[in-house]
């Protein structure tokens, strides 16, 4: 009986020997809670960029992180994963009709909700990158952004 007990731990080790080790993350996660959504219509679209000249459009750089989740009245949470350390800014759009663009009234007034990291203020246009930018040092980060509506 004693030899069997001695073999049991060795057998258990042998069974687990071929199992892959958990992989390390390539970067940090940024969890974003978006508050004050006025309804559950459409999608919440988010983009995050480190390129100052590509904010808030997030169209010209390959290093853009994007997310899209179903809208929900009140708040939603989404996450950017595997984000390298750096300085970033986030732009949000509540795309209520899910047409993939920011609809405007009179050619310039946003008809749908928007928001920016650090709840950067909007004055005669979107905020500058530096007003919305935050530093990511490598640890996971959580933040909250308030959705705003002008119409």
UniProtKB/TrEMBL annotation:
Signal peptide feature range: 1-24
Keywords, sorted A to Z: Signal
UniProt key word Signal: yes
Name the record gives this protein: DUF2141 domain-containing protein
Pfam families: DUF2141 (PF09912)
